[in-house]
Each structure stands twice: as C-alpha cells, then as structure tokens.
Amino acid sequence: MRARPAVLAAATAALLLLVGCSGGDEAPEPAASGPNAPSVSAPAVPDALSTYYDQKLSWTDCGDGYQCSKLTVPVDYADPSGATIPLSVIKLPAGKPKQRLGSLVVNPGGPGASGVDYARRASTSISAATRRAYDVVGFDPRGVATSDPLECLTDAQTDTFIGQDPTPDTPAEVSRMTAIGKGMGLGCQRADPALVGHVDTVSAARDMDVLRAALGDKRLFYLGKSYGTYLGATYADLFPTNIGRMVLDGAIDPRLSAREIDLGQAKGFEQATRAFVADCVDRSGCPLGSDVGRGMQRIQGLLASLDAKPLPSGDPSRPLTEGWGSYGIALGMYDKGFWPSLREALDQAFSRDGRGLMQLADMYADRQPDGTYAGNGTPALYAVNCLDRPVGDGAADVKAELPTFQRAAPTWGGLLAWGELPCTSWPLPATGKPHAVTAPGSPPIVVVGTTRDPATPYPWAQGLAEQLSDGHLITYRGDGHTAYMRGSRCVDKAVDAYLLRGTKPKDGLTC
C-alpha cells in the first residue's frame, strides 16, 4: 500500500475541522536564501561533487505560473565522474517576492509518486501564506515519472500485477505470484541496468542536497508526506546541519524492518476499515448492515468471493478480481471524502456489479480510461523499497508469518504479508537497512501523525519524533492519510507557524 496524494487532493467531500491548539516557543531563525534570510555560510561540498553542486538551474515557463528545469545528478555517488541522469524540477515562485524566505521542496510519497505533479497542486496541498513566502519546488525522484523513469512493465503487465490473487491459497497460485513479481524485477533490470541499483532513498536524499545548492539555498526547507517523510529523515541522517525547517507528515519510522512495516500497515488498514464500517452502520441504507463486526465480516466475505468468482466491471477483459477489489476498498481508507463513493461501490458489488469498486481501484493505481497508466508508480514502489530494506527468503517465510498477520488484521493481514514477495526475488540485493535517525545538530524537525492513518500508522510518527534529537510531534485525532492541509485548521496553523516563523509546536499538541 502507498500514498495517493494526487488522488487525495481531488477529494471533494469536507473533512473534519478541529480547532483549539496553540503554538510553542520560537525556534532560532534558520538560514534561507530570500531577502529576509540571515547571513550564513554555505555547507561544505566534497571536491568530487563540486560540478553538481555548482550547477545553476535554467528555468523556462511551463504554464500556470510555473517554471521548469532539469537538475543533473550522478547515477552512482560513489562514481561521480560516471553516468549522469537529469531530474525534472518545477517551481512556483513565491507569491510575495519581497517577503520570500527561500524554497520549500516538497515530496508527496509513494515511493513512486511525482513531486512535479504534487507541486502543481500547491493550491490544495500548501497554505496560501506559505505559498506567498516560499518558492514551492517539486522534483521527480530518480527513476520516477519524468526523471529517467524505470519502464519495468507494460500497461497490460501492470494490469496483471495488480489484478493477480493477492492472497494465494495453493502452491500453483504462490508460484504464479512469485513469477509475476520476479518478472517485474527483471523488467526493471532490463529497462535500465545502470540505474536500477541506484534508485534507493539514500541516493534520492543526496540528490535533494544537490537540488538545495542548485536552488541557491544554504539550507533545505522541506515538506514530505508519507514515504516523503522517510526521504526527509534519510536527508536528516546524512545532512543534519543542512536543514532549515523540515515537516514530516504521515511518518515512517526508519528503525522498522520490511516485515514490521507490512504488519503495521495491516493493522493500520484494519483500524481504518473498522472506522469506515462504524460510520456506515450508523447510516440508513448501509450495505454492511447495522453491526460493525458483521460489517467487517461482510467485507472479508466479498473479497473472498472475488477470489473465487470475479465480478463484471464493465470491461470484459478485466473483471473485478480480489486484487482490484482490494485496491478499490483501500482507496477509501486514505480519505473520508471517499467514504460515500465506497459505500455505493460496495452496495453495487453485493449486487454482483463491480464497476464502482473498479473505478476506485483505477484511481488508486493511476490507471487512465484508455488503459494506460499516468506514471510508473507501481514498479517504482518496489524498485525503491526492495533496495531500501532486506526481506525474507521467499514464500516459506511469508507463510510462517501469515498467522501473525491474520490474527492482527483479519481483513488485510494476508494481503500485506504476501506483499513483500516480489522483493524476495528482486535481481539486486538491498543496499539499505533499518536504523534509528537522530540527526544530531539539526534544528527542530516537526513530525505529524494521524491517529487512524492506514498507510503510516500513528505509532510510527511517535517513534520518529522520539528518536530525532530535536523532534516535535503534532498529533491529529482523525481518519485518513496525513494531516496538513487535509481539513484540520489546528494542524495547518501549527505547521504554518513553524514554516513561516520557526515556531515550534507546543509539547504534546493534539488537534
């Protein structure tokens, strides 16, 4: 499972509006590059990388007030004189240039989501006050979207990958899942054998420091959501004293293993699904009945029936399988704004009509009406994750863990347990490993956690804030994935106070 920030930004229903919080102490003003920034020396740069750090971005108009450019980075930072790749960068200049603080680099998550697309939605993802004070800068990480994307799967192969049985019950089904996952890894390797081993998060974080310098900023100002928090934490681990201000919303705890992340997400989606069902059964005409426990069982029964007999979806070549149905239901857990659509889609599915759930699944997967995919998010997700953390040895390890997952999350446990299988046959070994990030010497770093977040469970935000040497947690009591600019004025006020004035959130701030 991953964040779908582009989809979330399009949600039209109102979210919870919670108030009643206040800011904390003023933090020292960090260095930026705007006219209001204090004078400070630039960070030291290794001689071997000076060519990259000294580059100047050439901006061209790319519509709607945005400017676009390309940033050159080495494929392998251990061999900076070797091959290079261009990263796509986009900028929305600060609305009030005379009050400009610098650049705010943003990343929406994934891994595999486009930072360029996310920056183009700045009007819904970043407050007006912050847009006036900062240039909003997005970039597509290496191997993603428009930055030398890894073309691992055809559109038809992506359909097969998503639509496959996510909870195999027989040796034949396990073998098929193993073969499909291995095929994706080999496809990535064939697509770009040089780059595929260097799309890890450490390399992307090093790219971000090159971007900081190319933007003319002495310190990095950053807003990361979901996986973007892991990218931000990795940057903080590598360059703690290069940070200006950093907000990590929907946090991942970098100490967690791949297995711990999968189990945490299984529990998170289970909790979020129960919240959805609890809301549904209190409404007249709920397709899940009037009892939460039975409602959960009905969703589980639906997924089991899709495994046995897929539903028609309006496209004879692509019925609603358990894989597609899981995607459709999962999307509803990311934002309460999707709950009405999910209720309607479930009602249709119980009447043997899979069109509604398939439409939600297509939104989750970024699948277009013509059958193409808007990006390479699905294979990029695995290409990055399989390098970032080692996994078990294969299907036998997954089977051994299945009882634990299924007890913790009867609806989602099996799917999340089997989700690591493609990485067990990935053609390259993992280069990263879980470890604590303390970022000694950094300025205050703000971490935001949502109590019923399905994809990045709240304990992860608590864990990241605790391990950072100067971490500060904002808690949002609510549903959905991430919190800033998602409907809570309390969260928005606290984050903006920090980004604009360096005001640290009050200890224990809960919205």
Automatic annotation (TrEMBL):
One Gene Ontology term of the molecular function aspect: hydrolase activity
All copies of domain Peptidase S33 tripeptidyl aminopeptidase-like C-terminal, residue ranges: 410-511
Keywords, in A-Z order: Hydrolase, Signal
Residues annotated as signal peptide: 1-27
Highest taxon of the lineage: Bacteria
InterPro entries (alphabetical): AB_hydrolase_fold, Pept_S33_TAP-like_C, Serine_prot/Carboxylest_S33
PROSITE patterns: PROKAR_LIPOPROTEIN (PS51257)
PANTHER family, sorted: 2-SUCCINYL-6-HYDROXY-2,4-CYCLOHEXADIENE-1-CARBOXYLATE SYNTHASE, TRIPEPTIDYL AMINOPEPTIDASE
Family under the similarity heading: Belongs to the peptidase S33 family.
Stated name of the protein: Alpha/beta hydrolase
